[in-house]
Amino acid sequence: MALALLASPPPPLGGFRRSFGTKCSLFAAHRAKRNLMDLISDQDRGLRTQKDAVKRDAIVNAIEAMAVIGGSSVTTGDSLSATWRLLWTTEKEQLFIIEKAGLFGTRAGEVLQVIDVRKGTLNNDITFPPDGVFFVRSDIDISSPQRVNFKFTSAVLRGSNWEIPLPPFGQGWFENVYMDGDIRVAKDIRGDYLVVDRAPLNWKE
C-alpha cells in the first residue's frame, strides 16, 4: 500500500497554484459583487444616493473594486448584446426623468439599455407603463476590449397613440469595467457610473 502511494507523483505545483489562484479570484469577485449589490439594493436606482455622499462614495469604491477584478477581461464581445435593466446610476438626466415622471401623471417603469454589438446599435429606453416610452437611439463601435464609443442618432417620446421626435444630442464613450452572466458595471466619459443586470425580457421598439 505504501509503495503504491509513493508511486503516484504529487500534482505539479504550478497546476495547484493556478487552481488555487482561480478559486481565490472567483471568491474575491463573488464577495465584491455581493458587496456592491447590497450597497445599491435600497437606493431606488440612484435617486436616494444623490442626497447621500457617504453612500455614493461607498458604492463608487465598490465599483472600483469590481473594475480591478475585471481589469483584464474583454467586455465588448457578443455577450454584451442583450437587454440590460438599470439597477443603479449617477446619470443625472436619467434620474431626473425617473424622479419627475409623476408630474406628467405617470411613473417610470423599467429603464433599459438594448445593445446589439454586431449591428452596432444601442437604445436607451425609459418606459412609462402601460404604453409610454422615451428612447434614444445610438450607433456604437468597439474601440478596445472594454471601451464602446457611441453617437446619439435620434430620440423619441412615445405614448399609446402619439409620438414626438427629438433631435440627437451628443456622443461619447463608456467602459464596461466588469461584466459576467448577471450584471455589467460601466463608467463613462463624464465620470458617471452605471450598474445593470441582464433583463429577463427582449424589448423592441
Automatic annotation (TrEMBL):
Family membership: Belongs to the PAP/fibrillin family.
Location of this chain's protein in the cell: Plastid, Chloroplast
Domain Plastid lipid-associated protein/fibrillin conserved positions: 31-196
Superkingdom in the source lineage: Eukaryota
Residue stretches spanning the membrane: none
Protein name: Plastid lipid-associated protein/fibrillin conserved domain-containing protein
Record key words, sorted: Plastid, Transit peptide
Keyword Plastid applies: yes
Pfam families, per database record: PAP_fibrillin (PF04755)
Coarse class of the protein's main subcellular location: plastid
Biological source species: Brassica oleracea var. oleracea
Recorded coiled-coil stretches: none
InterPro entries: PAP, PAP/fibrillin_dom
Gene Ontology cellular component terms for the protein in this record: chloroplast
